[in-house]
Amino acid sequence: MIFGEPTDFAIEAYHEPSGARWAGFGRMSIDIQGVRLGNIHEKHCSLFHAADRLRDLPPTIAELWDEAFNGLSDAEIFAVVDEALYRASTGNWARYGRFDFLTNTGEQFDNLKTFIVCRPDQRISILYQLPDDKLGAASCSAQSFQNTSASFVRWFDKQVRIIAPSWFPA
């Protein structure tokens, strides 16, 4: 299934459970402005963490900016967040944790760092570092991000409810 528009913001996901206890497993990637992040060919990945992240972000989208980013380039913002979350000995998750996007949310995003910000003009920017250490950024409207995320989450929740065992939390 593809949710959204790949030239703007899209989520591609396939639910591939191999029995009720594997409900919520499958393949996933995102596309933003034609940039693909994630490995859609990586089979049998847990989609829960990514789905939860996409579920939790839209209501807090306006909070995805920090005054420390004013006047900084995408690469500089990436460096600030990366240092605070992954490089500093103590880290600063209290301030910068909300900008972590899909890093470590499943095998489909292995070796990929992604951060998310919502600029004052309501454009979502996803800042990323590819496995070859190449940095990049792509953006879409906050509305497009919210609509696509909500569509994916509704689909995911329905897929899990259909297949999951009766004791599985809904």
The gist of it:
The protein is of the alpha+beta class. It is built from 4 helices and 8 strands.
How would you describe this protein?
The strands form 2 sheets. Strands 1, 2, 3, 4 and 5 form a 5-stranded antiparallel beta sheet that branches. The chain has helices at 48-56, 74-87, 93-96, 142-163; strands at 2-5, 9-15, 25-32, 35-37, 45-46, 113-118, 123-129, 135-141. The protein has one domain (2-163). Helix 1 (48-56) crosses helix 4 (142-163). A hairpin with a 3-residue loop joins strand 1 and strand 2. The chain is built from 4 helices and 8 strands; from the N terminus they run E-E-E-E-E-H-H-H-E-E-E-H. The mean pLDDT is 91. By secondary structure, the protein is α+β, with helices and mostly antiparallel strands. It starts with a strand and ends in a 7-residue tail after the last helix.
